[in-house]
Design brief:
By secondary structure, this protein is α/β, with parallel strands linked by helices. The protein has helices at 17-28, 42-59, 65-73, 98-111, 127-131, 165-177, 193-196, 198-209, 215-224, 232-239, 241-254, 265-272, 319-326, 357-364, 394-406, 422-438, 444-455, 461-468, 470-484, 493-501; strands spanning 10-13, 33-36, 75-78, 89-92, 117-120, 140-145, 154-159, 181-186, 307-311, 330-334, 341-344, 347-351, 369-372, 383-388, 410-413. 42% of the residues lie in helices and 14% in strands. The longest helix has 18 residues, at 42-59.
């Protein structure tokens, strides 16, 4: 490991929430930290706020007063950039403006030693562009923390065109020494997290815009079936519509209006109305005191079936069999079926593969067809989304709902939307992660570490794709592309390659 020793002085520029948090992380490991902010008194204010946060940990018994004193005692407020001269690593966490960042780093080159490592916490500006005007551009890398820095484990270590590999490795190892989960990435728009996360919001917005389901139902399905800590609309309200919409537009424009990153008209409308989420008291949800919160669409209780027929192998949904048996539902297996299904008293249930139920019912002359959505883990999912073909009767939905209710699931009925909710989102996340790997931004392990550590996904999208089956992901994307006729759903070449090779994302081609 080439981490900077704890005897090395660390400097942080910018004493806002992020900068003060980074200073706390470095000081907690034993470094002396120099904290500077251009605003008078801001550096000391940042230290004071850090101490208040530590006091809350003391009150909870997670830290002693002596430990808190020692930590804050290692952070010194500085009144000028010149005082940062002893630093071996300088982390910049200031306003997201290229010219200001370039100016600060140019000054630091003259103030600090030739061996100083310069790191930018930028989330959106090219590291290559920031380094372009420097005398020693090879000494600059991205060191992108996630808010709140003392809590969030991920650090994206970003190399620009001129970044020295050894410098990047030192920053990577230092972040690991600080207790973080660092990942290496190339300087491209959105890096890893802000790029790969776009479909989490975009697909939910698309389902909403097309009337597939309402906000509360989409959020509930993503949480209670998909295993995500927050639904996409809850998260957009928390982040702030202005911030989330700006990031989407930034990535969209940086990739020359690639349709995969197309911003949503629904979100634009909320922006125009000033409904920015929690910060304004109204976004997708109303946060006014006493405001009634919408409940997800949950169907009424229906009778339990006595017997089902299972055709083929249900793949990721195979655990439903044991749950049905535990509910004392008789199971008849039909292993030689040409497709996978659950048959309930004349109704066929299938896991969605991206096609709409109405089209499948017409093609196969199978009117009583119901599709169900993907779950992270069908054993622990508490809600399942189902949809029926337009040709199917209401009784078909009732029989399907009764089956899932019998094994302890709440059921949300949604419209016949391609790929439903969780399935289309997971496949698009995997597709974007695969494209990041295919374009040399990072490796597969970095994608999954980044998405779990940076945005708390319950599973890395590429590991999830492996679990689902890469050919299944490809089929879902193909069906979405056929139905929509849009480049947005084009399949990453890496997914195609893994299908042909019958390989996991975490296997390398044989030499």
């Amino acid at each position: 490991m080439t981490a900077l020793p704890t005897t090395s002085t660390i400097a942080v520029i910018g004493a806002g929430t992020m900068g003060a948090g980074i200073a706390q992380v470095a000081a907690a490991t034993g470094h002396s930290v120099l904290l500077f902010d251009a605003a008078e008194g801001a550096a000391q204010s940042g230290i004071d706020k850090t101490r208040k946060g530590l006091d809350r940990l003391i009150a909870k018994g997670k830290m002693t007063a002596e430990q808190a004193d020692a930590l804050t005692g290692r952070i010194s407020a500085c009144g000028s950039l010149d005082e940062l001269a002893p630093a071996k690593l300088v982390v910049e966490a200031i306003v997201e403006k290229l010219d200001i960042k370039q100016s600060v780093f140019a000054q630091l080159e003259d103030i600090c030693g030739d061996d100083v490592i310069l790191a930018t916490n930028t989330s959106s500006i090219s590291v290559t562009a920031i380094a372009a005007g420097l005398k020693r551009p090879e000494r600059l890398v991205g060191m992108h923390f996630f808010n709140p820095a003392p809590v969030m484990k991920l650090v994206e270590v970003i190399s620009g065109l001129a970044s020295d590999a050894e410098v990047a490795q030192i920053v990577f190892d230092t972040a690991a020494h600080w207790g973080k989960h660092p990942v290496m990435a190339k300087s491209t728009p959105g890096f890893i997290v802000n790029r790969v996360a776009r479909p989490f919001y975009a697909e939910a917005l698309r389902v909403l815009q097309e009337g597939g389901a309402d906000v509360a139902t989409i959020d509930a399905v993503m949480r209670e079936s998909g295993g995500f800590r927050m639904g996409p609309f809850q998260l957009m309200d928390l982040i702030g519509m202005d911030v989330n919409y700006a990031v989407t537009n930034s990535v969209f424009n940086a990739y020359y209006q690639d349709q995969r990153f197309l911003p949503s008209l629904v979100q634009q409308e909320l922006m125009q109305a000033g409904r920015l989420g929690r910060k304004t008291g109204h976004g997708f949800y109303n946060y006014a005191e006493g405001a009634e919160q919408p409940a997800p669409n949950t169907t009424e209780q229906w009778p339990k079936p006595e017997r089902v027929i299972v055709g083929g192998h249900l793949g990721v949904a195979e655990s439903l069999i044991a749950q049905m048996e535990a509910a004392e539902i008789a199971i008849v297996r039909s292993e030689e079926s040409d497709h996978d299904f659950i048959w309930v008293d004349g109704v066929e249930l299938r896991l969605t593969e991206g096609a709409i139920a109405t089209e499948l019912a017409a093609e196969e002359e199978l009117n009583e067809l119901v599709l169900f959505d993907l779950a992270l883990d069908y054993n622990h999912a508490t809600r399942i989304a189902i949809t029926k073909a337009d040709q199917a009767s209401d009784e078909a939905l009732q029989k399907a709902a009764g089956l899932f209710q019998a094994i302890g699931k709440q059921v949300s009925v949604i419209d016949d939307i391609p790929g439903m909710i969780v399935m289309r989102t997971v496949c698009m996340l995997a597709n974007e992660g695969a494209d990041a790997v295919n374009q040399g931004v990072c490796n597969a392990e970095a994608v999954d570490i980044a998405m779990k550590g940076g945005v708390n996904y319950p599973q890395g999208p590429l590991a999830w794709a492996d679990q689902l089956g890469v050919p299944v992901v490809a089929t879902v994307l193909e069906n979405l592309a056929l139905l929509y006729g849009e480049d947005r759903y084009r399949i990453s070449p890496l997914i195609q390659r893994k299908c042909f090779a019958e390989q996991s994302f975490f296997e390398t081609p044989s030499s």
